[in-house]
Amino acid sequence: MKRLSRDSWLALGLFLLLTLFTTITVVQQAQASLTDPPLASYSTQPQGSRALWLYLESQQLQLTDSVGESFGIPNKVDLALVLEPTVAFTPGEWAILRSWVEDGGTLLLAGTTQATISLAQELDVSYGLVPSADTAVSNQTPLLNAPALNEIQAATPYFLRTDRDDFVTLLANRAGNPIAIAFAEGNGRVILTSLTEPFSNDGLQTEGNAELVLNLLNATPNLRSIWFNEWHHGIRPQTDGALTSSNWLQRTPGGRALLLVLAIIFIGLLLRGHRFGRPVPLREDIVRRAPLEYITGIANLSRRAGHRTAVLQHYHDRLKRDLGARYRLNPSLPDEEFINQLATYQTNLDTDALRQTLQKLSQTNVSESDMVQIVRQATMFDNR
Fold first, then answer.
1. Which of 279, 287, 301, 346 is deepest in the core (most CB within 10 A)?
2. Buried b (16+ CB within 10 A) or exposed e, 293-302
3. What confidence tier does 8 reach under pLDDT thresholds 50, 70, 90?
4. pTM for this one?
5. Alpha carbon of residue 239 to chain centroid
6. 320-345 burial by CB neighbour count: b if 16+ within 10 A, else e?
7. What element of type H or E holds 63?
8. CA 225 to CA 61: how far, in whole Å?
């Protein structure tokens, strides 16, 4: 079977990588399309706020959720509803909203997302977390009495903290921590709350939540029209100009997939280029070396490492193996026992000379010159 080349493996790997990325993108896009942003005015899911839209319509209020080419508050709007934004406000967008409030508009900001917390910090308000036992909410002002509030069922573990001295606490938990506050901002008004459940489709069905929401909205003087901010739920106008702009590559799955394909092709071209090509061996590396060069190289490495004891041990074992091979003696026997057995077969054996030679070969701390002399004696003894 023919083996795949390096380029074939590279192409296969890039293809698998592209397939995996495309699959993940499609799955994420499918999941995103099935889940609406929380408290979106068009969402009929449990955490949407379509029921709130229909409820406010029944109260003879004018509603709009229009978005333009850029962020802005529509004309003739009394109240801007910013419910659980999922897209952060840019400094320019926040400046537009704040200027609108200071000119006389009312902002109702509700939520606990990071985008909501960032907006609250711009208003010198921060969020805190309380134990679950203190999440029940109660009315703190007679202003919330249109319509009358008998009992509030809503709860939240988040409360508001601020060093401002111009705010009014509308709702609080059992520990007395503010849950909803209102304060003036220029000629306008800001209502800030960490409650989100009463605005949702599920929460609005709970008894008392509809009246609670209507009380918060009625804090706006002469309320006639309300704008639901869907811009910061990710809703953007889909025009032909937007599709032909450079944003298409960055903001759509097809555009991002195309950018990935181009990046992979670029990486593939780099890996196949001359700079990253296979190394070409030098001419002298192609010529075979003589066996003596390898032996000399290994010997020099052994000399530099100081393997003199290992060399003596090698010749010690080799001498016993060569002398005992003829008589089938075990070379691993202790030296004295080996000499006695060898002497029974070889009567002319100089046992004293063999004993001294083996003792010298068993030394562990010798100089290089001594090692050479000992090895020479062992070699001469072996050739007798």
1. 346
2. eeeeeeeeee
3. low
4. 0.56
5. 34
6. beebbeeeebeeeeebeebbeebeee
7. strand 62-64
8. 6
Categorize the per-residue pLDDT at 283 as very low, low, confident or very high, splitting at 50, 70 and 90: low
| E strand or H helix that includes residue 109 | strand 106-110
SS3 332: coil
Reduced to 3 states (helix: H, G, I; strand: E, B; else coil), residue 292 is: helix
- Is residue 99 a contact partner of residue 137, using CB atoms and an 8 Å limit? no
d(CA 105, CA 187): 8
What residues does CATH 3.40.50.880 cover in the chain? 38-233
Q: What is the DSSP string of 147-185?
A: S-------B-SEEEEE--SSEEEEEEETT--EEEEEEEE
pLDDT tens column, 260-269: 777 777 777 6
- Name the nearest CA neighbour of 93 among 73, 71, 110: 71
Q: How far is CA 49 from CA 72, 81, 160, 189, in A?
A: 21, 11, 23, 23
Please give the CATH topology (third level) of the domain spanning 38-233.
Answer: Rossmann fold (3.40.50)
Q: Counting beta carbons within 10 angstroms of the beta carbon of residue 264, is it exposed (0 to 12), middle (13 to 18) or buried (19 or more)?
A: middle
Task: Tell me the two tokens of residue 334.
Answer: 């202790």
Tell me the pLDDT tens digit for each residue of 171-229.
Answer: 888 888 899 999 999 999 999 999 999 999 998 888 888 888 888 888 788 889 999 99
> For residue 383, what are the contacts with CB-CB under 8 A and spacing of at least 6?
none
The 3-class SS string of 17-45 reads HHHHHHHHHHHHHHHHHHCCCCCCCCCCC
Closest CA to 382 of 346, 354, 360, 342: 354
